[in-house]
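[step 3/7] fold_predict: job queued, chain A
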Amino acid sequence: MAAPCFVIGVDGGTEGLRAGVFNAYDGTLLGTCSATYPTYFPAPSWAEQDPESWWTALGTAVRGALAAAKVPGESIAGFAADTTCCSVCCLDADGRPLRNALIWMDQRSSKEAAEVAATKDPAIKVNSGGRGPVSAEWMVCKSRWLKSNDPQSYHAARYICEYQDFFSMRLTGKMVASINCASVRWHYDCSTPDGYALSLLDKMDLQDLAGKWPKKVLALGEIVGGLTAEAAAHLGLVPGTPVAQGGADSFIGMIGLGVVEPGQMALLTGSSHLQLGMVSQALRGQGIFGTYDSAVIPGLHVVEGGQTSTGSIVHWLKRTLCGPDVTYDTLNAEAEEVPPGCDGLLALDHFQGNRTPHTDPLSRGCLVGLTLAHTRGHVYRALMESVVFGTRRILDNMAAAGARPTSINIAGGSTKSELWLQMHADVCNIPFVQTAENEAPMLGAAVLAAVAVGCHPDGIAAGAQRMVRTARVIYPRPEMHAAYEPHFQRYCQLYPALAPVFHAAHTSTQTSTSAPEQQQQQQQPQERQCTDEKSKEASRGQSVLQGIVAPSILAADFSRLGEEVESVLCNNLRGWVHVDVFDGSAMCNGNLTIGPPVISSLRAAHPAAFLDVHLAVDEPCKYVDAVVQAGASSVTFHLESPSLRGLTLERLKAGRHGLPAGSNGQQGAGDPATGFVDNVEGARVLASYLKSLGVRVGVALNPDTPETWVLPLIQEASIDLVLAMTVNPGWGGQSLIESVLTKVSRLREASDQFQRSIDIQVDGGISSTTASRAVASGANILVAGSAIFSRGRAAPSKDARAVSYANAISAIAEPLSKKGYAVQ
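[step 4/7] structure written:
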């Protein structure tokens, strides 16, 4: 029996990154961890990410996976990652990003895509057999846009490459390309001497681009190199650990689904759908991409279809049109009560354009046939049906070109809905196979790592057959296929009928946008290039944000608390008072302070005061109703609170919101390897509930909690305030932790890019000396306790104390005024 061998597979997706530790022989997943990163949408159809956030997430996820698997880093034999494709990066010679990456869903280069198609170069044979169109997602299109619209980054870049290549460079110090990414998105052809489409680059005035691309192109599973010491330290692994060449997430998902032989097809679902079929020979056809020679398995070809918006459109309905108490189970139950065809309601799933079969970035989503008789369940099912109809439309195109799958292996978000899963089988009239491991791309990356280190010397296909297991098969029902057929035919008529409307709307928008506005739009995503920092600061200072000093009564003399509060309110022009509620739990390091009765007394004595309540407790849900009823103006709770895990509105209202079993109040707060993915979902629920009670909502982060976990809540406008703790919660008089100010700076940068006027509050160690550094980092609310109250302790009278407090508040507020915030 072979000795245990462990490998790490990483799936770098659209919304975040997931790492897993696997048994390299049988594919058993031993432990996993996720980390998220933000996406910025600076203009319609634009989508960007910061490559540094990918790197940060990678370290968090890999360390967390090792901890979850209880496998030490020195026991890991190999590593491989898949990533999104085509997410285009501009890097300097050291692999550092010069600007945000244009990620795969970014459609801004639609004009350039049309120019690529117009070249009629032989390389575009993979775009509908040379007839086009070419997708705006692809490498050459985005590179041409960069050269025209961001020449500074383009010409400064030593490398223009992929998310995948960025990881290879950071991990090993070697800049190489993946044959997978290059074949499927760069017009690379391994059957030609040059590989790269040099004639296409020449026609697009991109002769210099080939010099910015990696010189070496590796096959999947080939060893890129060993981890550098810096990368190993970041991941918690051993220097020299082999890194295997990965590729595009969905294509690596084919391996993780066991799609390694002709006649098999993978359907990867999530925010989007991707159909990838394995065929034995090259074929071309209208409305399909490919085939791609040796892009996954040497000697075999891959045919591709894809839908840009699938899971994202059902999430759109839930997020924008449903309350926080509405779950996917609720929506699925309502949809099951609706017959196929939704009583005449049809949807078009092109919310972010269409990838195939129309390859039209200007197409848009729609609902057709709405009546007053239609319900939420009708709309939800219509969206589900539109996605499945889109998949069937793609399969029909592939069949016409000669690629007819006998079965489809499916993975991803849509498999969580039995209704949607069966709908796929019924509409497409093909058996759907669900594998035991739903994280197909991550498992596929693990297969590549296992092959690279010799666990499967007979190759990728054999390795996949050993490491991938079938769980069940969903068979189509003939009677349901017949029931869907007329509605599918009606769906096929929607795009031809509506395309002129979409294109006319785009033309109208382009015409009505002035040249200065267009220039401004082009400059928005280039945050890294902005050299006029004073202009940025001035515009920030003139926003709706206010500069606020919030005296923390944690440092007040509790024997005369009412008098202390009155003294600071008399001289605090914003009327804020920061009220810490500590209940002796782990979150506040065992300290006990005031509770709702004192808040009620403060409200009665000071009806105009802004009572900024900070719940530094393990179970904030126990107190929210009481503090709001007592008179809180704002309620801030900790994202690390363990009771947020698994929180639903039903549990909250029923009072079932205690600590998870076995937690003993220990969340692992501040450990980046632990992650707070479940807590973020619980925070959404609690924030929505608090807003329904009419108070402002804040989320607090302990000093060592990454800011990335709160970014989704900022982007969604779920919260009004982020409290960055610059000391450990629980006790006053601590010194400010300077490293937190870097986090504050990143929070402000993210909120600006999200175009959210979020209040950023810092609490701990604030004085007239440290206030300027906190404000320079991006804070606009300063919580100060000892720096205010300690100054007046020795004053001989109430009036003297009030004067002392006023002087302290003014000194702390001075940096806010200099920054440009209104403080009166």
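[step 5/7] annotate
The two ends are 75 Å apart (CA to CA).
The chain is about 40% helix and 15% strand.
exit 0
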